[in-house]
Amino acid sequence: MLVLITAGIFLNPPAEPAKTVNVSVEMSIRDIAPTLNVTGKALARELGLPIDVSKSKPLSTLGIKPETLRHAAHHLLSHHDTKLKYYLYAALVLGGLVFLTRLGRPDLCGVEHRKRWYPRSPYITSLLLSVFIAGFLLGKSPNPMEGAVKVFKSMVGLYADPVAKVTAFIYFIALAVIGNKLICGWACPFGALQELIYSFPVLKRIKKRKLPFALTNIIRGSLFAIMLLFLFGIAEGRKGTVIYHYLNPFNLFNLEFETVSILLTIILCLLGSLVIYRPFCQFICPFGFLSWIAERFSIVRVRVDKEKCTQCGACIKACPLEAAKGRIYGNKLPADCFS
């Protein structure tokens, strides 16, 4: 049976036509993988087979049904990057960096005019651009989370172009280092959507209660460690398994909910954003975890002027996380600062 797969408008830049491929369960993994621009291991993993399964046997002899092949091919095609998003991410990060370092607080604007410092409208505008253009218009890929995961997937042979995945990872980490996690705070589409929901003027009393950073980071770091254990086959289970596939909220921007766990992740994170600051970023996101580490080396990271700080607690109260508190008290590993 021949299966026709078409990659829709979200999967390519607007100027490119939709990509169509013809595949069949009478074909082997070795025959199909090049047409999808993936490795045989990646296709086997997507089909629910061990990554060391025979790549020369017809899929029908391996128990694969046409519907399973159709779904796997469609999912693999959906991860093709839209290069325009890389430029948009850079523009949003650069805009945020200029605003925070120069325009947000004019040179001659003294403390007596501090209520005029850093108006919120430029930030909200950046978040809206990220959600509607980098998100719904251009689709889910690329995004910082995939950038963090794909570089490790390429190490076990799940991508034919490991250099491209490493380059994308370095790109996202570089944006986090240059602008103190600005890629997360100003440009990431799902992070932006959570932030906008959190900004609704509701349940303010509950929002004052901040989650302990030690708790959220242990959960986030543990998920990342578990992902590596399964991906590299150290833990029992099929080598190549990526737990973030079942928790990927960026599928929202393609309106594709492949598993119940993905849909639940999106619903819980968006509802949770009414009272919790960026729950997906705090509890799950692998790039959030890695960029928290990279933040130690950020060029324009937040610094406290000990001579001027009176420890009045205003910044601690205003910060939606424990980031300001950690910096004021001199913690070596304070919470993420989303700038």
Q: How would you explain this protein's 3D organization?
A:
- The chain is mostly helical and 339 residues long.
- It has 2 domains: 76 residues; 211 residues, no CATH class.
- It has a two-stranded antiparallel ribbon.
- It is elongated and about 75 Å long.
- About 4% of the residues have low confidence.
Subunit organisation of the chains: single chain
Contiguous helical run count? 16
Radius of gyration: 22 Å
Task: Please outline the major beta sheet.
Answer: 2 strands, antiparallel
Strand order of the largest sheet: 1-2
Estimated structural class: mainly alpha
Broad shape: elongated
**Overall helicity:** 40-55%
How is this fold's topology laid out?
Elements: E1 2-6, E2 20-24, H1 29-36, H2 40-46, H3 66-77, H4 84-103, H5 121-137, H6 144-153, H7 162-178, H8 182-187, H9 189-198, H10 204-207, H11 213-231, H12 260-272, H13 279-283, H14 286-294, H15 314-318, H16 323-328
Antiparallel strand pairs: 1-2
Helix pairs in contact: 1-2, 4-5, 5-9, 6-7, 6-14
Salient structural properties:
single chain; 339 residues; mainly alpha; 2 domains; two-stranded antiparallel ribbon; 16 helices; elongated
Give me a quick take on this structure.
The chain is mainly α and 339 residues long. It is built from 16 helices and 2 strands.
